[in-house]
Amino acid sequence: MADKNKKKNNNRNKDYDEDFNPKFRKQRKKVCPLCNDKNFVLDYKNLDQLRKFVNDKGKILPRRTTGACAEHQRDITLAVKRARHIAILPYTTKD
Ligand SMILES: [Zn+2]
Question: CATH: 4.10.640.10, 3.40.710.10, 3.40.50.1580, 3.20.20.60. Which one for 2-85?
Answer without folding.
Answer: 4.10.640.10
